[in-house]
Specification:
By secondary structure, this protein is mostly helical. It has six helices and no strands. The longest helix is centred in the C-terminal third of the chain and has 37 residues.
Length: 171
């Protein structure tokens, strides 16, 4: 197994994680109410944001696999770390609330084992230094709020566009 092959699995894991959050929409909104403006927490906005995020990840990972370009590979690894840190956030939130929050099951069963595998393969196949791995993890930490903001905005924009195309009034 190499890092290019592993990159193709990332959008699947991300999609499952996003689906878990969406399928538990009521709990998801309850957990994030007050942290995010209400207009960005509508069911269609969350759905659109998750779908768009997964599609963009699929394109980046496909490019990383097919081109074997170092830049796309690093973007994939940074995205993996962002998802890993997001997964750890779900686990911490679940521990604080003493209940399983949306995203925690996929975080524990899929995201964390996958992330460990990515790190092992990255270290073994490309001899990437721990310093480089920590740097990419740091970028992943910065990517989380940026990705959330961008994809919620895109989810909201696509929802408004869908409404406009159906001839519905602005909200």
């Amino acid at each position: 197994m190499n890092i290019a092959t592993l990159s193709l699995v990332f959008p699947v894991i991300l999609g499952i994680h996003n689906a878990e959050e969406y399928l538990r929409y009521g709990d998801f909104v309850r957990d994030y109410h007050g942290r995010v403006a209400a207009r960005f927490l509508g069911r269609p906005v969350i759905r659109n944001a998750g779908v768009l995020l997964t599609l963009v990840a699929a394109v980046v990972c496909l490019l990383a696999c097919l081109s074997q370009n170092e830049v796309f590979t690093e973007i994939f690894v940074v995205a993996t770390f962002a998802l890993t840190l997001n997964a750890l956030g779900h686990i911490v939130m679940s521990l604080r609330r003493r209940s399983i929050t949306p995203g925690t099951v996929s975080a524990v069963l899929l995201v964390l084992p996958y992330s460990v595998l990515v790190i092992i393969v990255l270290r073994a196949s490309s001899d990437t230094s721990w310093g480089s791995i920590l740097r990419m993890a740091g970028f992943g930490m910065l990517l989380i709020p940026l990705a959330v903001a961008v994809f919620l905005l895109l989810g909201y924009a696509t929802w408004l566009l869908q409404r406009r195309l159906r001839g519905e009034a602005e909200a």
